[in-house]
Amino acid sequence: MNFPTKKKTTNKINNKANLGMVLEDMINQTNEFYINANLAIIHKKPTPIQIVKVDYPMRSKAVITEAYYKTPSTTDYNGVYKGYYIDFEAKENHNKTLFPLRNIHPHQVKHLNQIVAHGGIGFLIVAWNHYNEFYLLPLDILNEFWNQAQDDGRKSIPYSIFKEKCIPIKEGYAPRLDYLKAVDILIKNQI
Amino acid sequence: MNFPTKKKTTNKINNKANLGMVLEDMINQTNEFYINANLAIIHKKPTPIQIVKVDYPMRSKAVITEAYYKTPSTTDYNGVYKGYYIDFEAKENHNKTLFPLRNIHPHQVKHLNQIVAHGGIGFLIVAWNHYNEFYLLPLDILNEFWNQAQDDGRKSIPYSIFKEKCIPIKEGYAPRLDYLKAVDILIKNQI
Question: In whole angstroms, how far apart are CA A63 and each of A51, A70, B49, B55?
Fold first, then answer.
């Protein structure tokens, strides 16, 4: 609720990192709420790390002393809800008019399409930080703009498409970001 | 196919590590086969790492210089197969007569039970290295012995139970370890 304030008081790099954490934290808190309320079992996957060197100090636990962040090959979140396999990626967007598609890795789009082809539910959660708005971006809309990007150079989804075609997610206290309500609508629309 | 030979020629610690990798590698190869054959989308989750220190050398990518292995809060593998949410943990067993339950973290058993309660398919894959045999251990059998362990101190599942009640998984070339055949049997038994 207070990102716009935060945005003005911190420097740009920190701000981006903080806002990145905000959406992740909101979803993690929401997932914890869902697990405790016995509504869904959805977890964030660990960040993939390439480990190069590990030290084994005497009698204490192994210390990783050289490692690198790897590009994730799938998405950040997955789990089970009402028997459905749920799989999604969460993205912050700092732009006011467009959601640039360079935010998403090609293998993540491929992964989400594979998920849906096998009967799973795949989507993106996009935070528009400037408006403090959150949307579930269905995969078919992502695909439409993703495929256009290859042809005519358009590499983004306009804000208007989110307003018109995506499913809004309401921010709250508990759950923090009740995205399963949006998933219910997504499932209903698909049947 | 050649673990028993390997077992005799390497020292105990390396051997354990190697065999641990063998099952993981077999499952990873199998998952790759399943994805390429468009049969299922199942991935290993990254190992959870607690990052303590990160260096940012000039113009090169971030280097993690201090990090620790964390206890996983869920299982190693999950994904989607025929619309089902699939979730499992893979364990090597070096014992000849028993599968000790200390191999499994309590939160992993809890997690698998949550998964099944929400309509997912949860199980263990257990490798009996001495016999070079592989089994799908259904959750209800794990639960039975897990709950006994709390009461009367029994903390393992005998080999005979695997022979009699678990679903054997055949080792092969491609796929390396065709566990989806065992999952099909598990699903059929549950309906």
Answer: 11, 19, 10, 16
